[in-house]
């Protein structure tokens, strides 16, 4: 006869069988812009595009982060929002681009925070793709070699601004090697690389594209992974490990716990899960419509910890920080 009820009777006993949240596991993704004012992001409410303010201080963002630090916030990830997009994504590493400006402010005003920067060109290109394009027989395709050189230069610019970690999300082949080689050559061996290793050509990114004011049309199925594939994730993990990644990301994550577990079981690199904008909206809409938001947020994030993730990149970070002590 098998008996379970006696091990579930007391709340302390129930907690022994579950993983637990800690603020050190959270990375808070943020969108920063050179505009003076903050703006709400449709579909990601109450998340904001954080403005630079007229004096360049990002004062409202700094105040927001100072409050979250009192609740345990340790890590953020910056994404840039720009208006002047072009074919080469020129503003990605321009000296005045909002990610560089904000990194410098955060490092000065909030020195205890870990600052990571997304490295991609989709926020900065007028075509919205994650790399440079070239025409072959009248068809526009990704120019991988030129793109990874460009991504390495963008990463170097963020390292020079003070980023502790760069996070290439572009899904180009061999970009980790290109970035690691240049960072090391320029004296930034201490700057880590968090690779988007399993990134699916998912339908779950729409609010993010609104957040960065993307001009993208079409799909990215020629460089992001098929949603049903596990082989691409396995191959990418071995490649990114070999090329020098310090941590790997599974994105989206709620539908991909099998991939999270397969990475975690290797016990070679920490695994991060990005709960993407569409997943955020899905959880938010369900939680609000059933008056169960706290429960559904806890269950969704706990499922990824159970699968083996070490890091949760989530727009729910402020919400979780307000509640984690009782979870």
For the biggest sheet, the summary is:
8 strands, parallel, barrel
The main sheet orders its strands as: 1-4-5-8-9-10-11-12
Query: Helix count?
Result: 11
Number of strands: 12
Number of domains: 1
Dominant shape: globular
Q: How much is the radius of gyration in Å?
A: 20 Å
Explain what the structure shows.
The protein is an alpha/beta fold. The protein has one domain (23-326): TIM Barrel (Alpha-Beta Barrel). Helix content is 36%, strand content 19%. It is built from 11 helices and 12 strands. The chain has helices at residues 11-16, 59-70, 98-109, 144-161, 175-185, 206-211, 231-243, 257-264, 277-289, 293-307, 317-321, and strands at residues 26-33, 39-40, 48-51, 75-81, 114-119, 133-136, 139-142, 165-168, 192-199, 247-251, 271-275, 311-314. The strands form 2 sheets. An 8-stranded parallel barrel has the order 1-4-5-8-9-10-11-12, surrounded by 7 helices. A two-stranded antiparallel sheet has the order 6-7.
């Amino acid at each position: 006869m098998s008996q379970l009820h006696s091990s579930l009777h007391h709340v302390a006993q129930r907690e022994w069988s579950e993983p637990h949240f800690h603020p050190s596991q959270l990375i808070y993704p943020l969108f920063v812009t050179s505009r003076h004012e903050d703006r709400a992001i449709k579909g990601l409410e109450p998340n904001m595009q954080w403005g630079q303010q007229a004096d360049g201080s990002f004062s409202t963002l700094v105040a927001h982060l100072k409050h979250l630090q009192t609740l345990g916030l340790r890590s953020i990830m910056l994404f840039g929002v720009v208006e002047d997009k072009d074919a080469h994504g020129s503003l990605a590493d321009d000296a005045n681009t909002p990610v560089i400006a904000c990194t410098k402010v955060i490092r000065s005003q909030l020195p205890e925070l870990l600052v990571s920067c997304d490295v991609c060109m989709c926020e900065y290109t007028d075509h919205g793709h994650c790399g440079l394009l070239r025409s072959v027989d009248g068809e526009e395709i990704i120019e991988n070699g030129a793109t990874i050189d460009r991504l390495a230069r963008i990463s170097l610019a963020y390292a020079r601004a003070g980023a502790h970690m760069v996070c290439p999300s572009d899904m180009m082949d061999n970009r980790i090697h290109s970035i690691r080689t240049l960072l090391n050559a320029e004296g930034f061996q201490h700057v880590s690389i968090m690779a988007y290793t399993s990134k699916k050509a998912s339908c779950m990114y729409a609010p993010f594209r609104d957040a960065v004011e993307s001009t993208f049309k079409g799909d990215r199925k020629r460089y992001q992974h098929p949603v049903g594939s596990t082989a691409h994730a396995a191959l990418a993990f071995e490649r990114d490990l070999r090329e020098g990644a310090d941590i790997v990301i599974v994105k989206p994550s709620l539908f991909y716990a099998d991939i999270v577990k397969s990475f975690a079981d290797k016990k070679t690199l920490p695994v991060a899960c990005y709960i993407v904008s569409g997943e955020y909206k899905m959880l938010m809409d369900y939680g609000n419509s059933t008056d169960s938001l706290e429960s559904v947020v806890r269950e969704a994030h706990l499922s990824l910890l159970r699968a083996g993730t070490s890091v949760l990149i989530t727009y729910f970070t402020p919400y979780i920080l307000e509640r984690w002590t009782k979870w």
